[in-house]
């Protein structure tokens, strides 16, 4: 099991006003320092095990991870920023795999990250988890791999998620910037 510590950081808006408070956790896995957002238990422990599996060759019982994710979504069903934090916790793994040039495996990270959210939505008809973040990263990975059809489809799916979550037709999101070609 990796060792972990928690530190708090405060992000400030350009005006100097506090924008949000983000709790970060630093994990040490096999001598590698990993910084991810703190999500609370049992999700933090599940991400510790996930990172230990990827970076330390530890076993990962995916069913336990998925169960923790379902509980996390139960607790954060109405909080898109918390849902984004869940998906953002996968980016360290994704980035490492991407850097190694294993683009097909990097896409698989997002498929797996989405599974608990999709399962939760099936069990809670009429409720949804914001999934713009994983669709955006998955789409970018598909594009890098050269699968333009899949990449553009996923990017547009992420953009639709952003519209549904924000209630705006032109949300200020990376997905909108991509689909509108706004650099």
How is this structure best described in words?
It contains 8 helices and 3 strands; from the N terminus they run βββαααααααα. The chain has helices at residues 43-56, 62-75, 80-88, 91-99, 103-123, 132-145, 148-166, 174-179; strands at residues 3-12, 18-29, 32-37. Strand 1 (3-12) and strand 2 (18-29) form a beta hairpin. The termini are far apart.
Summarize the helices and strands and which ones pair or pack:
Blueprint: E1 3-12, E2 18-29, E3 32-37, H1 43-56, H2 62-75, H3 80-88, H4 91-99, H5 103-123, H6 132-145, H7 148-166, H8 174-179
Antiparallel strand pairs: 1-2, 2-3
Helix pairs in contact: 1-2, 2-5, 4-5, 5-6, 6-7
List the main descriptive attributes of the protein structure presented here.
three-stranded antiparallel sheet, alpha+beta, 58% helix, 3 strands, single chain, 8 helices, 15% strand, 183 residues
- From the alpha-carbon coordinates, what is the Rg to the nearest angstrom? 17 Å
Q: What can be said about the biggest beta sheet? A: 3 strands, antiparallel
Strand order of the largest sheet: 1-2-3
Q: What would the principal axes of the Cα set say about the shape?
A: globular
How much beta, percentage-wise? 15-25%
Uncertain residue segments: 4-19
Question: What is the helix tally?
Answer: 8
Distance between the termini: 42 Å
- The chain-level structural class is alpha+beta
The helix/strand order is EEEHHHHHHHH
Describe the structure in brief.
The chain is an alpha+beta fold and 183 residues long.
